[in-house]
Design a protein that fits this description.
Length: 369
């Protein structure tokens, strides 16, 4: 019987070697190691043999089965790799075909939709859309915008400083952690206002521009994130006054929040405007601070007003940083304003937490399709 086992093993090894495909190899496995194959049946019949034959026959049959299983496994790997190479060489994937199963068409993120809506309003008012660098020079981000040397926004606890590429043969200088004698002159812009100076350097008056984009500050809570979106507005022309600013923002507020809105200006301070104002829009969620059931409006906290942006007349010191006589503060005047896209979206859609915009929760985002 041991001779028959050796014969079966040799036949199996020959069949494995001759199998040219994985399908043929599977047939060999079933024929030699399947439930009805002779070798497994010999193993199952060992118990019926005389006691003196059981050990030798069982050992030989087990060794034959294990050898064939190992041989089949190795040959399977070889054939699968070869067949994969053939498929990869022959197959063509049409990346232009739609996915399967078909997915519904996407939509703009709420922040993108809000930004485009705001841009459309100002385009209709005669403004031009500009964009600027997100990694900005300290000169444009602070100095040219009339920020004092000790202004808190310059501190590394408020602003992200950026390391310049290392010069050959020089040791690195890291932004806010650098020695005071060699401070970094690059920051992640804290507002889109640096484009005020860049725009005036590139274009003569009259100038009417809005500048959307991402900005960065070291804040993180329900109403602040380290990265957010801002839209800066600048208008420079002859005889531009706060009345022009108010009219522009009134048109904006009514386009975004509804035709019945009013705006009010409150005194404030910004380094690059003088006078400066905070701008409120009348609440669109209530009447005189109360809902129809008489309860206090949760949106405006019963004040009837919603703060939407900061603005003011361009400070004459800002014009001084533009090397162009046409921006002489004795000849031109203008206004500037800055608004947060997230702030407008939160007010318009009564969203309580800024972080919802960035959580990528489809249950939240699909509400604004």
């Amino acid at each position: 019987m041991i001779e028959r086992i050796e014969q079966l093993r040799a036949e199996g090894e020959g069949a494995v070697a001759q199998a040219a495909t994985t399908a043929a190899l599977e047939e060999v496995r079933v024929r030699h190691l399947g439930r009805r194959a002779e070798l497994p049946n010999l193993l199952r019949g060992v118990a019926d043999l005389p006691p003196e034959q059981r050990g030798g026959v069982g050992k030989a049959a087990n060794q034959a089965r294990q050898a064939l299983e190992a041989l089949i496994a190795g040959r399977t790997r070889e054939l699968e790799a070869a067949e994969l190479d053939v498929r990869l060489a022959a197959d063509r994937v049409d990346v232009t075909l739609p996915g399967y199963p078909a997915q519904p068409a996407g939509r703009l993120h709420l922040l993108t939709a809000t930004r485009r809506e705001i841009e459309d309003v100002f385009l209709g008012l005669g403004f031009t859309i500009l964009e600027g660098p997100e990694v900005e020079l300290v000169h444009y981000n602070f100095d040219a915008l009339n920020h004092a040397p000790n202004h808190p926004a310059r501190d590394r606890t408020d602003t992200f400083y950026v390391r310049r590429p290392e010069a050959a043969g020089q040791s690195p200088v890291a932004g806010p952690d650098a020695p005071r004698s060699t401070p970094s002159d690059l920051v992640l812009r804290t507002h889109t206002s640096p484009m005020q100076i860049r725009a005036m350097e590139a274009h003569p008056p009259p100038l009417y521009v809005v500048v959307p984009g991402r900005v960065y500050r070291r804040d993180s809570d329900a109403t602040h994130t380290p990265q957010f979106h801002q839209i800066e507005g600048l208008a420079v022309d002859k005889d531009v006054t706060l009345a022009d600013l108010k009219g522009t923002l009134l048109a904006f507020a009514r386009a975004i929040f509804g035709d019945e809105r009013e705006v009010r200006l409150r005194p404030h301070f910004f380094p690059f405007t003088e006078p400066s104002v905070e701008v409120d829009v009348s609440c669109f969620n209530c009447t005189e601070g109360h809902l129809r059931d008489g309860s206090r409006c949760p949106l405006c906290k019963g004040t009837s007003w919603l703060e939407i942006l900061g603005a003011g007349e361009v400070d004459p010191n800002v014009y001084a940083h533009v090397d162009d006589d046409r921006y002489d503060p004795e000849k031109v005047s203008g206004f500037a304003f800055g608004l947060g896209v997230e702030r407008i979206a939160m007010l318009k859609h009564a969203i309580p937490d800024l972080r919802l915009f960035y959580d990528n929760d489809l249950r939240f985002l699909e509400q604004f399709g």
